[in-house]
Amino acid sequence: MKPSFEQVWQILQADVVSDAELAKRLGCKPDLVRRARASLGMEPMPLPPSNARMPHEERLMLFSEQRPGGHRRWLGSVSGSGLPVIGSASVARIAFRAEYGREPAGRVQPGCGRRWCVAGPHQTDQSMRDAGGKTLPQGGRPVDLEARARIAEAFKDGPVPNLVVAAQLGVDRRIVAEVRARLHVPRSVRSSSQPKEWTRERFEALTARLPGGHRRWRGRTTADGVPLVGRTETAYRVAFTLHHGHQPDGPVRHTVDCAVKHCVEGSHLNDRRMREDVRALDRAGGVR
Ligand SMILES: [Zn+2]
Ligand SMILES: [Zn+2]
Questions:
Q1: Mean pLDDT across 207-236
Q2: Residues of 208-246 as b/e, b for ≥16 C-beta within 10 angstroms?
């Protein structure tokens, strides 16, 4: 059951606890805790401080998120070579131990080929790789006929970008490209003169949820990181349209409450008309 704002307020006032931890404890979304905290005028605290005492297994779950295909994306610190770490400990090893209940032999690697994946069942150690039991095709999890059938199904309604299909089904892009070529599906038109049919599902498949209700764009960007959907259209405009149910009026910007650069969460974006309304309210002495 979703906790009430009042319940969250009471706990926040009595206890120092991050959004992620409290959301897990109460079974609600971290965003609810974030909003309750903000409404109390408290400093944001999306994640537990890195020096907090917490079992590694618990930190593993709090600092990662479920992805399609059974993967778990690590949102915490990474080593110099990009591998998930907690302090100096390898998160892959922690996930391996929790999953198999034994010490790994040799190096632990995600068998799915995704370096950021910390899903327990996707971890392999040297003995498993030697046995060949979990040796997966390079860069992807095993792709069976059923997965190929689902890829073919995804192309039934027309040319969808490979990236979208791969993200939705949790399979490697190269497999999608291979199936597409066999089916002779034409290249998808990405020019902004031919707007693509965006659904919330397709859009969200190209994003990753971040603590605090923000969203990170996983698709194309400009050189300085602005998320793009077409050649020139920003993902902000699509996010805005999907959230508000209408096209934005003038430029889309982030609301004052969202300080995450390049966040593509629709509810964190406003257009000119919304900004003018807020200013009019301010002038009238209203409370935002
Ligand atoms: Zn994985
Ligand atoms: Zn945001």
A1: 85
A2: bbbbbbbbbbbbbeeeeeebbbbeebbbbbbbbbbeeee
